Amino acid sequence: MSALKPLILVSNDDGITAPGIRNLVAVASKLGRVVVVAPDGPQSGMGHAITIGNTLRLNPVDIFDGIEAYECSGTPADCVKLAKREVLGGNAPDLVVSGINHGSNSSISVLYSGTMSAAIEAGIEGIPAIGFSLCDYGHNADFTHILPFVEQIISEALQSGIPPGVTMNANFPAASKGPIKGIKICRQARAKWQEEFDKRLDPRGREYYWMVGSFVNLDKGEDTDEWALANGYASLVPCTYDLTAYAAMPFLNEKWQLAR
Amino acid sequence: MSALKPLILVSNDDGITAPGIRNLVAVASKLGRVVVVAPDGPQSGMGHAITIGNTLRLNPVDIFDGIEAYECSGTPADCVKLAKREVLGGNAPDLVVSGINHGSNSSISVLYSGTMSAAIEAGIEGIPAIGFSLCDYGHNADFTHILPFVEQIISEALQSGIPPGVTMNANFPAASKGPIKGIKICRQARAKWQEEFDKRLDPRGREYYWMVGSFVNLDKGEDTDEWALANGYASLVPCTYDLTAYAAMPFLNEKWQLAR
What CATH number does residue A65 fall under? Predict the structure, then answer.
């Protein structure tokens, strides 16, 4: 293996045995030297959680045809932190890729996404990073139609670069929607999850809930990730970790009466 | 209790028995009708995690002198979702307040913060919301010096309003730093956590890790939350849930060679 090949760290949130990460490792291996550090079980919906009140385990596994890989007991963000400090000895990889997630992480779901938190964690560290998600929650989802596009995006990230502090959120329509028409650079659609709770009784007669919800797109824009995905395109949203709502500052400075 | 009083939902991430939420309930009760829905145990560092692969419990508790309160087995974001759907019957409260957190949630910590995720979850729903944090991790932290400022901020949020979709992140210096000089509207400082991992051996001789880290401020700006806190002021950062890095779009559209 050439020492000139870029070092690509691969993680995810569905767990290290998920088909999605196997597909991503296969693509990344064509473009660089790959190291995998991923959760030892499902961590979907973990958002940007980190493990601070508990301990972490990190164990080598040999499930990727000889590629260096470790399973971690923590969250996706933990995986990236541990990878950098303990696996790579404090050296930053050239690129972090996360996924391929079994399910959409478009629009507002970026906030809940463990897949994207691994990528954004790298972004905070100044490492170029991309999260990949397929809009198909099935464990046996078909990834073949998106792999050439995943390869193209990784290749562009390595060759053209990603602006400092920016993390890319790539989502792809499910195979059932037909061939991917192309890739659109998009903004995050304004949307929300409309939650419902399925209330049940446990065997001891006590109430518990399952969260169920439906996605509600509130955004009619044709420059959004939701529009791209609904129209057969892959969506690519550049994301920042600076949550400051700059547009709100004049209002607050003028209207809020505060002891300054 | 007057029906005209605004309805204020209170949550946190340190758990419903933490001193910080008791202080926040006391202040909020002066300004509105309060309902508490908070985690049944510590959920620090949970980021915007939600519970999708497991069930949720929600049980009434009577620990706030007759104020309606529920403990929830889920994350802070779960608490807000359950509160709206199940406790308030689908009706939005007039304001959501979260905290007062035992520890800073300034700068980049907003991403890891369960306190802020409860508030941002409300923001996504279009509900005005504020997260409050004291830069003192102690369980017995002194909150008295910040309570008049917490009251002023809640009062302004109710009277002057918060722009739609914006969520406020309020942080306060510890009591040991002296009286609060005032409140500054700030942007999120550019910073990161420099993690170290304390590697140990368990009683069976196997390795495990504790994450430890130090905060590194990379931002010399005097308009940041870190500057305000370091100089004796409370910081108030308006936050958005739109992560789109708009400034990166021209570069990507020009430089990235993609199948469009």
Answer: 3.40.1210.10
Of A82, A153, A156, the CB nearest to B209: A82
Do B238 and A252 lie within an 8 Å CB cutoff?
A: yes
Residue A2: inside a domain, yes or no? no
- Rounded Cα distance, A193 and A214, in Å: 6
**pLDDT, tens digit, 9 for 90 and up, residues A99-156:** 999 999 999 999 999 999 999 999 999 999 999 999 999 989 999 999 999 999 999 9
Contact A57 B207 (CB under 8 A): yes
| CB-based contact A166 B209, cutoff 8 Å | no
Q: How many domains does chain B have?
A: 1
Q: Is residue B90 part of a domain?
A: yes
Minimum-distance CB partner of A55 among B85, B209, B247: B209
| Token code pair at residue A26 | 């296969």
In a domain, A196, yes or no: no
**How many angstroms separate the CA atoms of B78 and B56, rounded?**
8
Per the confidence metrics, is the pTM higher than 0.90?
yes
Could you tell me the end-to-end alpha-carbon distance of chain A, in angstroms, rounded to an integer?
60
pLDDT in tens, A160-171: 999 999 999 999
The length of chain A in residues reads 260
- Could you give the CA distance from residue B149 to residue A197 in angstroms, rounded to a whole number? 36
Domain extent, residue A168, equals 7-189+220-255
Residue B78 has phi, psi (to 5 degrees) of -55, -40
